[in-house]
Design a protein that fits this description.
Largest sheet: 5 strands, mixed
CATH class of the largest domain: Mainly Alpha
CATH topology of the largest domain: Globin-like
Radius of gyration: 31 Å
Distance between the termini: 98 Å
Helix content: 55-70%
Number of strands: 5
Strand order of the largest sheet: 1-2-3-4-5
Number of helices: 11
Shape: rod-shaped
CATH architecture of the largest domain: Orthogonal Bundle
Number of domains: 2
Length: 280
């Protein structure tokens, strides 16, 4: 006579078997976290999967309290994991569903081996609990993964923006700000703030702003440039311009922006030869 074993007991005793069976069926040709061949990375991946099973099987324990906090902690841990961040979200979701399929098969194995008399009603209850739980986990993971990815992209964008608008010292009092690439609203704001702060901190008396590497300057950017020059004047730095394209000059004229009080040079070389690194 077979011992009476609950579904919870059966799953609880087989959490490592679930992990090993999942990894055995994993497509190792995938990139990111699933394609690693390093033993320590493989073990870490298995450990993360096993931690998921330890929490998930508690759904079938009638004595367990709410598991929301434990699931939240596990999801946050995986979302913040660098290897998972480097893995395409669709591939991660696919593995959630592969684990779901594994649980469906495991429940069928349990019924066949330990509880063949299980009612259809109770069986369906288990299946619905399983499917609903995976659905909620996938939704929550996808949401947090997207939020984290957007945060990282924004941080990278800000870092690139800051690095792409450096104030280069030519001597103790004269500096150069070479602008390269397209300038959008966000970048214009960062350039304005960073440049003002740099000139104040380093006590720059003269700043040459070179625009030869900027392909297009729209109304917003031209206006922001004018505000930057005015702001520099207020903090005691005299600004001059070089490399102004005809399109930029036309935009400034259309806006009614007056650069008459600002010295303008054709190139950086001509500016430096005429200024001779003296105050502008």
């Amino acid at each position: 006579m077979q011992m009476s074993v609950s579904l919870y007991q059966f799953l609880k005793e087989n959490t490592w078997d679930l992990t090993e069976e999942w990894y055995k069926g994993l497509d190792k040709t995938k990139g990111g976290v699933y394609g690693s061949t390093a033993p320590e990375k493989i073990q870490e991946l298995k450990q993360q999967n096993h931690e998921f099973h330890l929490i998930f099987v508690e759904l079938f324990n009638e004595e367990s309290e709410r598991l929301d906090d434990e699931f939240d902690q596990w999801v946050d841990k995986i979302v913040l994991d660098q290897a998972h961040l480097a893995t395409p979200l669709p591939e991660i979701i696919e593995e959630f569903f592969n684990n779901q399929t594994l649980y469906l098969k495991t429940i069928d194995t349990y019924v066949e081996k330990y509880n063949p008399e299980l009612s259809i009603t109770q069986y369906n209850k288990y299946i619905q609990l399983l499917l609903h739980a995976f659905q909620q986990i996938v939704i929550e993971f996808s949401k947090r993964n997207q939020e984290k990815s957007e945060q990282l992209l924004l941080a990278q964008k800000e870092m690139i923006t800051e690095l792409s608008s450096p104030v280069i010292h030519l001597n103790e009092q004269v500096a150069l700000l070479p602008l390269v690439g397209e300038i959008d609203t966000h970048r214009a704001k960062v350039i304005f703030e960073q440049t003002l702060q740099s000139c104040v901190d380093d006590r720059i008396q003269s700043l040459l702003i070179d625009l030869s590497g900027v392909p297009v300057v729209d109304t917003m950017v031209a206006n922001q440039l004018f505000q930057l020059i005015e702001g520099l004047t207020l903090v005691g730095t005299t600004a001059s311009l070089s490399g102004i394209r005809p399109e930029i000059a036309q935009t400034a004229v259309q806006l009614g922006i007056d650069f008459n009080r600002t010295k303008v040079y054709a190139t950086i070389a001509s500016a430096l030869s005429k200024l001779n690194f003296n105050a502008m």
